[in-house]
Here is the input.
Amino acid sequence: MICVEKVQRRIRARRRVLLFGWLGAGCLLLARAAEIQIVQGAEWRALAGQQHSASVEVNAPRGNVLDRDGVELAITHAVYQVAVAPRELRDLDDTERRVAEALGLSLREVRRSTRADSPWRVLSGRYPVAVREALRSVRGVHVLQELRRFYPQTTLARGILGTVRDGDGLGGIEQAFDEVLRGQPGRKIFARDSHGNAIPGESVMVETPRSGGQVVLSLDRDLQEIAQGALWEAIEKTGARGGDLLLTDPNTGDVLAMVSISEGNTSVLSAVNTPYEPGSILKPFTVASLLSLKLASLDDSIDTGDGVLELNGRTLRDVSSRHGVMTLGEALKVSSNVGVALAAQAFEAPDHYQLLRAFGFGAPTGVGLPGESSGVLRRPEHWTSQSSASLAIGYEISVTPLQMAMAYGALANGGRLMAPRLVLEVRDADGNVVERRGPREVRSVVSAHVAEQIAGVLVNVVEEGTGTRARMASFTLAGKSGTARAMGTNGRYEAGAYQASFAGFFPAEDPQLVIMVRLDRPEGAYYGGTVAAPVTRATLEAILAARETPLNREALARVARASAARNTNTSAQNRGGTFVSLGTGRADSGPVESPPENFGGVFPMPDLEGLSLRSAARRLHALGLRVAVEGSGSLLESVPSAGTRVVRGDTIILRSRKGRGDD
Here is the structure.
């Protein structure tokens, strides 16, 4: 009995121990559960949420860049990718048929994705919004939006616009106004599986992205197109490496067109960031400074001898055959290096420097584009005994084409240096104006009387001097050609390499346009008056023929009638120019006559057979027609064809052989 009781007591003791053990373990579990659920609950719930879902930033549609008339130069549009989750598909045959029809693919191509083993397959290609609507209700098919930057005018103004990479603006307006254009990104939450991968179709937009604002430029699309065509043709004809062509409004500083081409690339902006020694087109500012300081007059006589001058160890030579005694005005007209350099000896170095700075040389224009160069204009303490003479004729100084265009604008508008205006307005995403930029005068450089005197000489330069190849029959142009040796990458002049340029304003009596042309290293003939001046005339003729331009045509008509009245008995052939009728946009060698008030006109489409694409485009631009080019090979056909009646302003399609093959 005693043994049985002992055994029973031991059993009861063990039961108590086990019971207390279980109770203790339960209490520990409850305590731990309470700690996890109550004390650490928020932390664990957050961690679980992170494992099962994630958030991602959603880019906002980038704002548009427009020209002065609202033409889209840079836009963002949505394209769509199509992805298939094979495990979600129900009616396989119907799904494959609908996807193939919507995407224009073969059933075989679609089946590679719908019958794949992987849980997620993306079909190749990008598709328009219509695809999203067609496949919205198809189970297992997911349409993914992608925002892309698009430049509707193709290569037009690409150097000015810049580009976008990974959502960031690079160069040009895209970079300068990145904060305005990029908008406010949104946020999206998507579900993740046990492996951390996104679950297709399981996403929620928690913060909607806000579109970027708009930037309105001073550029005129038609003038930009004309300028680019004219520069391309000049480069092809002269064999130049590249060049620049600018059109500005001298009264407001508006940049109406700015084209830069280098080694066949139109995405550069050498007009703003690549300074060069200008040569003779700087001479008008030397003479204007002398007149402004009353150190000389246009009637002062200068003895240029035989056209060779030894001055402080440097030899200057005149290209012109005109030598001997001439007035300062005549020296500028024939571009006498000797005459202008001798006249410049009247300068005190600080005064010479200050007046060149006053015209904007040696300082950035403030156009607002990244990478703008200020050029080079050394302070007087760094000048040598030769510097004054060198600067007088456009050496020992480097300028950008934009600086030169703005300086000529000061001669055209009565002596006021205007800041270049490239941006007219900044708007929000709804099109409301948040900033409007008006014209800005930097300073008054010379008096209106001095500017008028220089303009008179520049008219003579075109009519009788070194710029006669820019001369027009119906209008008077004021301008100056320039030729300077080109600098190599080693900082030394490159043998046989030159920069040819021409700058001027039109019409001389009531200037509406400043034009600046530079050709980099033309082959063969290289003088500015020979290769750059004709580009000026061709550009202006195409502008006059265009149906829509920012020019004041009533003012042009008044000027043309006055010019015709002065030259009633003078034919365009005798003047060495071509007459462009404002009514038809047609070149003619007949007598000058008053242009009609109506600038419309219907005429037959010209025969372009045998022309290159660029030459054909240039000819059509001169007739006031717009051009759309398909492909990049030799010209195959035009639509409409030769002989078809067209109206100025119509768009002509030029198709190349390469383009037709690609179709």
